[in-house]
Amino acid sequence: MEHYYIYKGLVMEFDRCIANNWYGKTKAPSEAKARSNLTYQFKKQLGKLPRTKINLPGKIILEGASDNGDT
Question: Is residue 67 part of a domain?
């Protein structure tokens, strides 16, 4: 089952901060895949090459998460 994930925070290119408060949202089956999708999304938005090392150091939030597992 896929969920929506949100990221709002720093974006690092190699070891340098290139965005202080970037916002991205994606649908993915896991947090790891969501992080990958969001990194790709950032690269496309800013015209970065696919091989550019981009890191999202902040927390990725599961949107609409509840204790009973429903979203």
Answer: no
